[in-house]
Write a structure and sequence with these properties.
Elements: H1 3-20, E1 25-26, E2 35-36, E3 40-45, H2 51-61, E4 69-73, E5 78-83, H3 87-95, E6 102-106, E7 112-118, H4 121-124, H5 136-148, E8 154-164, E9 167-174, E10 180-187, H6 196-199, E11 213-219, E12 225-231, H7 235-238, E13 242-247, E14 260-263, E15 265-266, H8 285-294
Length: 298
């Protein structure tokens, strides 16, 4: 299947996910026949207080296609779900009951990764008064700053879960970006210091035939966008590389502005993260979660 066809397919997958709440079948297979998406297990921290909490969450999750198993532990405040649904769909469904949810782990060991998408450091940091006002870079940074507004530099999160040797589930959620269409791409390096300009070209693999542009998504008038789909990469091939989300028309790699960027890093597999209190900050997972939400991560 051509790159253009795969981009169209993954865009339609995003639309289906938004409409149905989950994606059970993907159509971007080489045979052009529907292909079932393999299921995976994910664990979530949820503030479960009693059996009524369990019943209410179970009822909400029953509306999601592709869930084959749910298990609840009130003492541990953990929910385990086996499904084909994207993590963002499961989280938002649990949150619809008035309870928060934190993804603690997903997929087998060494099969998951995460990428925090943020304003490039060169834009997020205000040029100092000692900077030369004639500097071309400084002028570009000031111009770009007007595209992002103020507050936390974080603008979203990409989750990657490898479901088979040939298939990885990608789940991208964006917040606080201007309305419009954006492309998501893998970049050759992990240098996010100057955004798209320092990340390098779109990375199509060493043979030049891999899908470097992973998909297209729409950001609505509330600044939110979501893209869920299958990508033909193994997680380990993406770890350490950059991801870039930028307005359509600016994906030539020169950093015209408006992009958010991040570096792909490994994350915990299912049951690999038992942390309750952070050893660095001393904060509980819920205190950390509050700070993350305040920074724009969902």
């Amino acid at each position: 299947m051509s790159l253009l066809s795969r981009r169209a397919a993954i865009t339609s997958i995003s639309a289906l996910s938004a409409a149905a709440g989950a994606t059970l079948y993907y159509k971007n297979s080489s045979s052009a026949r529907p292909k079932m998406l393999p299921s995976y297990e994910a664990t979530f921290s949820v503030p479960l207080e009693c059996e009524a909490c369990v019943i209410e969450i179970k009822d909400a999750l029953s509306n999601i296609q592709g869930i084959t198993s749910t298990n609840f532990s009130i003492p541990s405040r953990l929910v385990s779900i086996i499904s084909t649904a994207a993590p963002s769909t499961l989280i938002s469904t649990i949150q619809s009951t008035g309870r928060d949810a934190i993804l603690r782990g997903s997929g087998p060991s060494n099969s998951a990764a995460v990428c925090i998408l943020e304003i490039p450091p060169s834009v997020a940091s205000t040029p100092s008064s000692s900077s030369s006002s004639s500097s071309t870079t400084t002028k570009r940074e000031i111009a770009q700053s007007s595209l992002y507004g103020y507050g936390s530099p974080v603008r979203g999160l990409a989750r990657l879960i490898q479901l088979s040797p040939e298939m990885t589930l990608m789940d991208v959620t964006l917040t606080s970006l201007p309305k419009g269409q954006y492309s998501v791409s893998v970049r050759r390096t992990g240098d996010i210091s100057r955004g798209a300009a320092s990340l390098g070209d779109v990375y199509y693999g060493e043979d030049g035939e891999r899908e470097g542009v992973l998909g297209v998504l729409d950001v609505d008038e509330n600044g939110r966008g979501n893209l869920v789909g299958e990508v033909g990469w193994r997680v380990w091939e993406l770890v350490g590389r950059g991801m870039c989300v930028q307005p359509i028309g600016a994906n030539d790699g020169i950093g015209r502005g408006g992009e958010v960027v991040g570096v792909v890093a490994r994350s915990a597999g299912v049951w690999e993260n038992e942390k309750v209190v952070c050893g660095c900050s001393g904060k509980t997972v819920w205190e950390e979660r509050e700070g993350m939400v305040g920074r724009g991560m969902v």
